[in-house]
Batch of 2 targets.
Target 1
Amino acid sequence: MMDVIIAGIGQTTVREHWDLSIRDLAFQAMDAAIRDSAGLVPQALFVGNMLSAVLSKQSHLGALIADFAGLNGIEAYTVEAAGASGGVALRQGYMAVTSGLVDVALVVGVEKFTDLLGSPAEAGFSIPLDSDYEAIHGMTPSAQSALLMQRYLHDYHLGHEVFSGFPLIAHANGVGNPNAMYRKAISVETYNRSGMVCPPLNMFDVAPEADGAAALVLTRADLFPFAASPDATSHPLVRISGSSVVTDTLALHDRRDLLDLQAAHQSVENACRQAGIMPKDVDLFELYDSSSILAALSLEAAGFAERGKGWQMAQDGSCALNGKLPILTMGGMKARGNPGGAAGVYQAVEAVLQLRGEAGKNQITNARLALVQSLGGPGSTAVTHVLERL
């Protein structure tokens, strides 16, 4: 299989962008990624977005953003898979380039939460759930995570405080990320004193929604002008050596085991097999931490921890920047902010920064392999990529 490389990356800060439209945000990230790729011209645009039709009253983002960016005439469309939208858009771009039908693909994830406020926005957040059996009864993504955490605490006889390690790591790493929404470390005491969002989830267990856009330029190694002479670039090249998307039941009540993220497990297994590695070989794991419970379950699903013990890795230092498996290296969704359908592209951009050696104060020493996973809903869609420094 031919090598697909990430030739350019771009991102905006994650915050409340009241002064920018969804097309403005997307363009900023796309323009930065194209410039970072030495000016490669994309033939296809894949837009990862979750809620634009509801929050921004705008669908047909492919044509809108391509037109605004001056890319008229190219293939362009939106990819939606709830919180995994950005990761699945990357998968689509990867497959397009791998097929040989597209030489250069541009992937952008973008979300504008501040276009709609109040109860209509809250209702919009539940659209990715099962409408007939969950959302109609008032279920929300936070409530789903709360149910999972409650079951976890009950089954393994634990107290809520065991989950403090995930937000502590995220906020500690967010300090060194200039694009993060929150750049201040927190203490265990702060975590334990924080108010409840949906018991047992407190405010530090749930990632805050915010506006943002991130972009990637993909091409084949033999087409990239600097691939033959990496020394000519200002950074090492990064390739996608494994890619997989797997789905599970949409509704929680249809699962035999609520705490077993089957799709997350299978997508890691598939991506690592394609890359010719084992999960233990990676130098970092950019997991999906929209809630603390999903972070713990993701570590277990990927095989890094036994069932019921994923939280321990965040508590014992294993997942710190200098640990054996760094996670959330630029703050994750909790500190960087949760940009909805753009989250998966941000995760990939941040992993590329680590592999290039461009992560600044958060740089991991000698990072060569990164595992990146995004989840749609409570693991209803799981997309995993293995990124490798050449």
Note: The first helix runs from residue 22 to 36.
Target 2
Amino acid sequence: MDQVPTRYSNNTNDSNLVLDLMFLRCDSEEINLHIIHPEWWLTSDHVPLTIIIPIADEHINICKHTIIKDSVEEVKFVNEVIALFSKVDASSISNVYDLDEVVSSWVDIVSRSWSRHSKPINITKHSKSWWNDKCSQDLASYRSSKSIKSWKTF
């Protein structure tokens, strides 16, 4: 392999050196290819070194159930839970066992109601259900100003 200088001396009496280090994976052709860029050398006494690290596109698919806020399904879910909660006899709780039984009943009610009224959705790396117009405006503001204040607001 040809030795390409990576450090250029400012002193004409000193020679240029192969000095910079990159720690690579010697057993991987894919991650062991680096490039020395003497043409990118500017005011520093070192030239840039680069490596391209391949990153595989990863498909993360998570399914969860959800109810859209302020939807008809949300109203039905809430009304059903309230109606069924009121039917659970919680008037004679006198010990921890009785309390556990009532709480377990309520958990079952919420779980069954949730299953009936929620819909499965797939969460992927492209899902951004939390993103809204304010996020877009704040991001646009940051991109135009590049200020730390705008970034913190975003």
Note: The helical segments are 72-87, 96-117, 133-145, 148-153.
